[in-house]
Amino acid sequence: MSTATELAELAAWENRVQVEVGKLSGSIEDKSFALNNSPLAEQYLLIHAAYTRLASHSQEALKRAIFIQWYWTAEPSIYSGIHDLSDSAVDQALLLLEQRLQTNDLDQEWDWMLPWCYSILEFMFERVENQPRFQQILAAYSVNDWQAEPVLQPLEQRGIMGEYWLSMMD
Q1: CB crowding 90-106: b at 16 or more within 10 Å, else e
Q2: Is residue 13 classed exposed, middle or buried when 0-12, 13-18 and 19+ CB atoms within 10 A define those classes?
Q3: Who's near 108: CB < 8 A, 6+ residues apart?
Q4: Distance of alpha carbon 90 from alpha carbon 61, whole angstroms
Q5: CB 3.0–4.6 Å: which of 51, 82, 107, 154 could bond 44 by disulfide?
Q6: pLDDT at 76
Q7: 16-27, pLDDT tens digit by residue?
């Protein structure tokens, strides 16, 4: 199966999960209980692991993995559907991002996305040990860089990451 096909299937899987998350009802506690005690709770763990597996040879997969990690920290699970992620997959995605940052092997879309993510949850990127260059590069971003005219691929069919950025542009 091609990487493009796998990415499309993962985005469709994310969309199905988001539909189910949208059906959660009741109080915050009710929604949390329902999410935590259903198969839905494991879906993003599996989705994120799949993106991370593809991320060594796909910038798009890495973007989605990093975004899911960020969103997991930024948004309550009852809204995101992201209950838990694998520590090893989280660390692997950050290490892959660090490698791409250090070799300047990132497309322009990262220059738009990373400043926003870093400015809101700087500590999320601190999981990578011994990465002074990584932190230096991220710290050089301005909190307002994301407001520049983005150089983006179409955001549709890019999972929760695409949905989030589309909502930011409305």
Answers
A1: bebbbbbbbebbeeeeb
A2: middle
A3: 151
A4: 13
A5: 82
A6: 93
A7: 999 999 999 999
